[in-house]
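Throughout this chapter, every protein is written as a compact record of paired, labelled lines. An example of such a record is reproduced below:
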Amino acid sequence: MKKLTSLSTFTDEQLIEFYHNDSNQAAIQELCSRYENKIFSKCYSMTKSREVAEDLRQDVMIKIIDKLSQFKGLSSFSTWVYSITHNHCIEHLRKYKRIRFDDLKDLLDIPEEVADEEVQEVFQLRLDRINFLLELLKPEDKAILLMKYQEGFDLKRIMEVSEIAGLSAANMRLNRAKNRLVALYNKFLLES
């Protein structure tokens, strides 16, 4: 067994095993320090508020510590952490978002299908304009688009993180989110 002073050389899985076997707090502290910046970044990308992102990061860290005994290693630890972060941010956005996509959908002409090039065009907008559009979307749509176009996740990783049952369902959700984003773009930015 390695000395406690060298926990930084342990893999995530080794730290988890060490924590499970010995309830060692140093192991959990090492895991938390590895992921706290990534968790904050994800929370910030979803909320665009440093203060809210910091609160959410703390909530997520507590959830990870509380649920660590439930981690079974069916996916990588980083995917598990990302999934908890993603779901917590979605819960927050659902609870506090003032304008909802459902309030606007009757105003929109949502296309049946959208090419990736059209979505890429939207993501090339100035940051303030893309944020405006993303804030109008449902939190789930915003999250899946950010995973695909900001994080560069493939469909399988999106499926795992979002806890969607199957690649075809994940693809369908991604396509619907793309269609809604382009509809918002066409209505509010292309016309202006």
In short: The chain has two domains: 4-96, 101-190. The radius of gyration is 19 Å.
